[in-house]
Amino acid sequence: MIKFFKNLISKYEIQNEAEFVDHEKENKQSLFDSLKKNLENFKNSFDESADLTIRPIKVLNTNAAIITMEGMINKETFATSVMNPIVYAFEKENLTSSEKLEYIKNNILTISEQIDVETFDDSFKLIMSGFALLIFDGCKKALAIGVQGFNFRSISEPETEVMQKGSKEGFVEAIRINLTMIRRRIKNPKLKFEFLSCGNTSLTDICLCYIKDIVSDKILQELKKRISKVNLQNVLAAEYLVPYIEEKGDLSFFSSVGFSERPDTVCGKIAEGRIAILVDGTPTALIVPYLFIEYFQTIDDYAERPYFATLTRWLKYLSFFIATLLPGLYVALAVFNPEVFPDRLISKIAYSIAGTPFPLMLETLIIHFIYEIMREAGLRLPRPLGHAVSIVGGLVIGETAVNAGLIGAPTLMVVALTAISSYVIPNLYEPTAILRLIFILVGGILGIWGVMLLFSVLIVNICSKSNFGIPFASPIAPFDFYSMRDVITRVSWKTLSKKNKTIQNMPH
Amino acid sequence: MKVKNMFILLELILVCFLPGCSKVSGLDEQLIVYGIGIDNSEGIYELSVQAIDIKNNSESSSKEAQKKLTTISSKAPSLIEAEKQIENQSGKKMLYSHALILIIGEQTAKNGITDIVKFFSTNHKLRPTVEVLISNISAKDILANEKGENNSEDILALTKVGKENNDAINSNLRYILGDINDNLKAEKVWYLEYNEGQMCCEKISILKNSKLINILDDDDTKGAILCFGKAKNICDNIKINDKEIYYEINKAKANINFSVEKGKPIFYVSVLVTMNLYNLDNNISNEEVKPLIEKRLSNLIKNTINFCIKENNCDIFNFNKHIIKANADFFKANLNRIENIVASAEYDINVSTKIRYLGPNQDISALVY
Amino acid sequence: MERKNIVTAPQLFSLFFLCNIIIGITYNLPMAKSIGILDHILSAIAALFINILLIFPIYKIYKINPNINIVDNCIKNFKKIGIIFLIIYGVYYIFVCCYMLSLFNIFVRDIVDPDISLFMLTFCVILGSSYAACKGIEGIARACSIILFIICLAIVFIIFTIIPQIDFMNYTPLLFNGPNDFINGIFYLTSLSFYIPLAATLLPVVKSGAKKVLIATNTVTYILFAIVIIIIAGALGDYLKTQTFQIYEATSTAEIGVFKRLDAIYLGIFTSGLFITVSLFLFAFFLVIKKILGVKRNKLIIFFADIFLLVISLILPEFEEISCFFYDTKFIFVFTFLTSFVIPTTILLKYKLNLKWRND
Question: ipTM surpassing 0.90, yes or no?
Answer without folding.
Answer: yes
